[in-house]
Write a structure and sequence with these properties.
Length: about 170
């Protein structure tokens, strides 16, 4: 049975991430979406919120589960008995960092392979950062994220502003 993990910050999950999840779930028997606890310095969403949003988005894909993890991705992969890491490649700008990560992970754990899925053209410009930036200025973000994520973003921004914090 081929178990794959799809690691990332998912702060928050976008339609680009979901495209990769759906496609990877068709390739591997089991896909674990692995949400990194301490990756971004100042994430908009807590780890519990990021996991909950992803879980809601993936609830209709039977072979996908969502888990959080801390520390090295290869250690988490080992714990899950995963042999594959899935990453999405958007543009050449992703390549340099991704190849370095894949080679480092392979050096740390020779049993793990990284597979890259080319982003659908539809989502190649999209990132969680862009969604958050657009939302800060009140733009329509419904194209980029699912309705539950959109609502969570508006609620979070409103809560932060109500507390006198700039999101
Ligand atoms: P990280 O913090 O590791 O960059 P992200 O949560 O931003 O994690 O992304 C996780 C993975 O999803 C990465 O492999 C990234 O390249 C991929 N990804 C991000 N945005 C998109 C997108 N729009 N389409 C396809 N893949 C994407």
């Amino acid at each position: 049975m081929a178990v794959a993990i799809y690691p990332g910050s998912f702060d928050p999950v976008t339609r680009g991430h979901l495209d990769i999840i759906k496609r990877a779930a068709r390739i591997y028997d089991r896909l674990i979406v692995a949400v990194l606890i301490n990756s971004a310095k100042r994430p908009l969403f807590t780890i519990e919120e990021r996991v909950a949003l992803l879980t809601e988005c993936c609830k209709n894909i039977p072979n996908v589960t969502v888990q959080s993890f801390d520390g090295l991705t290869v250690d988490f992969a080992r714990k899950c008995h995963a042999t594959v890491m899935v990453r999405g490649l958007r543009a050449v700008t992703d390549f340099e960092n991704e190849i370095q990560l894949a080679q480092t992970n392979h050096a740390l754990m020779p049993g793990i392979e990284t597979t890259f899925l080319a982003t659908s053209i539809k989502w190649s410009y999209l990132s969680s950062t862009i969604v958050k930036e657009a939302a800060r200025y009140g733009s329509d973000i419904s194209k980029f994220v699912t309705p539950n994520v959109e609502k969570a973003i508006w609620d979070k921004i409103a809560a932060l502003r109500a507390a006198g914090k700039e999101p």
